[in-house]
Amino acid sequence: MLPVKSTSVESDNCVKGWQARFNQASRHTQGVAELSYALLAFWRMLLTVPCGNWSCALLLKSVRAVLLPFCINMLPILQTVPFAVCGLYWFFNGQQVPECPSETLYRFEDPQFYFCWFAGGYNMVWPMVLPLGLVVVASYCMIATAFLLPGTVPGASENRWHQEDSDLTSACGSRRLRLALQVALDIVVWLPVTMPIYGVVPAVMAYWNCLRRGNIFDFKSAAKGAASSSSAEAPSEATAEGVEVAAVVGRANADELDDVL
Fold first, then answer.
1. Which residue in 53, 93, 109, 231 has the most C-beta neighbors within 10 A?
2. Residue 88 phi, psi dihedral angles, 5° rounding
3. What is the dihedral of CA 19, 139, 133, 116, to 10 degrees?
4. Following DSSP, what letter does each residue of 35-96 receive, concatenated?
């Protein structure tokens, strides 16, 4: 991973920022092509590695290497689509699912109740509480580790890397409280609104592109960087041009690369 703390794209206005963020999401979802290569490499390893060299540790590491791109690029969509279908089915059937308890009281003596409850057939809210809670905790830990904790180490004031704390202000005298509230607000309120646009649509487009073109896709760069007194007022021409330049990566031929360069 590159040593950078700037994850948000830069743009001149909100509309261009939304477009740049969509291009960034589309670029990230193209990583689904890595899954096919991981599966191919794993299959070739099964055919070539002698049986005497196999071990539980090697098998576990190999499976983890295959599951990583799967969990990143496909598992979220595989979870979203069935839940959305179940939600629509529940909504258009009078807010209940056949063969699932429809009473407001919990029926702990009925085994069918537990299957319906965990599947979302009894209540469409509870199955989302635990995943959203884990997303809030994971996001908070990631941001706190990258931005807040480095500033508390000895000598942090002399290190530019440690000083980059995203200018997070305090709430009730605590920056951690402010971070927790902001992350919870973003996840609970805005995540259901933005994920269909910046999550589902780019992922489906990446699947279709991978099906038709393999790992060839149009690479659209995004400008990033911390604003300074000079760069904030007058962005450089190189940065402005970098947002517009499109490069073809993957199995592109030499002529296409020459045209880009």
1. 231
2. -65, -40
3. 60
4. HHHHHHHHHHHHHHS-GGG--HHHHHHHHHHHHHHHHHHTHHHHHHHHHHHHHHHHHHTTS-
Distance CA 234, CA 247 (A): 25
Q: What b-and-e string marks burial along 88-111, b requiring 16 or more CB atoms within 10 Å of the CB?
A: eebeeeeebbeebbeeeeeeeeee
CA atoms within 13 A on the CB side of 122: 20
pLDDT digits (tens, 9 = 90+) for 67-97: 988 988 888 888 888 878 877 887 787 777 7
For residue 217, give the nearest of 188, 261, 250, 241 by alpha carbon: 250
- CA max distance for the chain: 69
In whole angstroms, give the CA distance from residue 172 to residue 182: 13
Q: Which residues pair with 246 in a beta bridge?
A: 220
**Dihedral angle, C-alpha 126, 128, 132, 134, nearest 10 °:** 80
* Confidence grade of residue 28 (pLDDT, cut at 50, 70, 90): confident
